[in-house]
Amino acid sequence: MDQPEVVLGVGGGIAAYKACELLRRFTESGHAVRVVPTASALRFVGAATWAALSGAPVATEVWDDVDEVPHVRIGKRADLVVIAPATADVLARAAGGRADDLLTNVLLTARCPVVFAPAMHTEMWEHPATQENVATLRRRGAVVIEPAEGRLTGADTGKGRLPDPEAIFQICRRVLARGPGAVAPDLAGRHVVISAGGTREPLDPVRFLGNRSSGKQGYALARTAVARGARVTLVAANAALPDPAGADLVRVTTASELREAVLKAAADADAVVMAAAVADFRPAARAESKIKKVPGRDPDPIALVRNPDILAELSSAKTPGRVVVGFAAETDDVLANGRAKLAAKGCDLLVVNQVGEDRAFGAEENEAVLLAADGGETPVPHGPKEALADEIWDAVARLLRGASAGA
């Protein structure tokens, strides 16, 4: 099988040095990479570095190797073009259809998926001109990853930081996995809300009632949704995982906090996927100090009360056209319990899987059955959690298209 051909465009920002790590991720995973830096990018990282890391000549000028027509050939042969960092200037020139250097020529000739990873100061990212350029690129089918928040140049902090190269690579890997026919992201223009992880209900200042959920399935849903062009809000409960690039992350602890965050984010959402393992019960009372052992006496029973049923609440208050997806973690009678839960909750889709020690929770792989409100059943065989995530988004995208067609 031929190596997938990736064009790595590098804009002229201080974050250009981080693109070296992204390049290494591609080459070590078997991709053939052609680096196309802008003239400004070469002020930060020289052509010799790019050539050494990629193992290929660096293309910098339209006028180099004119007989090979590089401004057309490079873009036409690519399986993916990723721009990292994508500066405000690169975004503006790409949105305007400019062709004043090799990189912008490549963007005009490419017929493959294109991913932009912006990096700039917060004020530049938030400027209406930049936001209009981003909206234009997304409308044309490009994946523009939301920048991260954190330390910028100098003493400044805010939104505009280049996401971690590993996170960018994972998004690009998912874009490539969808194949050459999937150029237009099918969730572009959609806002999706995902819950992940496991809630913790405090018993005293040091103890809590919790579960084994790691959040890996919810984070996989976030990564795949970003790769498919969605604006993603991830509500994460106690997940010790790297922040997924391009998602707005909201951290919570308890079921009550998760409910508040999800309902707030869902106000303008096209789809809500409740992948978090939400505690059904919480202690009726929280001890203000650590509960001590008393010699010769058994501990007092712990009284529990019900937590709000967030999935049922979302389903009952669902706005027209919004898709609500639930998860059912079962230990036995998996499908029977799943069908009963689907009927009781009233959601559009229910992802049913069998859980237990060393199964689903904390694992890198998963298997499930997607139950639909119309009676459909879609088995998803054992495989990476991102594969299950894509199956879920396939089903969500079909429902959203159907809702739009019937509007």
TrEMBL record:
Protein residues bound to CTP: D280, K290, P308, D309, I310, L311, F327, K341, K345
A Gene Ontology BP annotation from the UniProt entry: coenzyme A biosynthetic process
Cross-referenced InterPro entries: CoaB-like_sf, CoaBC, DNA/pantothenate-metab_flavo_C, Flavin_trans-like, Flavoprotein
Keywords: Decarboxylase, Flavoprotein, FMN, Ligase, Lyase, Magnesium, Metal-binding, Multifunctional enzyme
UniProt key word Flavoprotein: yes
Coiled coil, from the record: none
Region (Phosphopantothenate--cysteine ligase): 192-407
Cofactor(s) the protein requires to work: FMN; Mg(2+)
Involved pathway(s): Cofactor biosynthesis; coenzyme A biosynthesis; CoA from (R)-pantothenate: step 2/5; Cofactor biosynthesis; coenzyme A biosynthesis; CoA from (R)-pantothenate: step 3/5
Region (Phosphopantothenoylcysteine decarboxylase): 1-191
Reaction it catalyzes: N-[(R)-4-phosphopantothenoyl]-L-cysteine + H(+) = (R)-4'-phosphopantetheine + CO2; (R)-4'-phosphopantothenate + L-cysteine + CTP = N-[(R)-4-phosphopantothenoyl]-L-cysteine + CMP + diphosphate + H(+)
Domain Flavoprotein intervals: 5-172
Residues in DNA/pantothenate metabolism flavoprotein C-terminal domain copies: 187-398
MF GO annotations: FMN binding; metal ion binding; phosphopantothenate--cysteine ligase activity; phosphopantothenoylcysteine decarboxylase activity
Function, as annotated: Catalyzes two sequential steps in the biosynthesis of coenzyme A. In the first step cysteine is conjugated to 4'-phosphopantothenate to form 4-phosphopantothenoylcysteine. In the second step the latter compound is decarboxylated to form 4'-phosphopantotheine.
The protein, known as: Coenzyme A biosynthesis bifunctional protein CoaBC
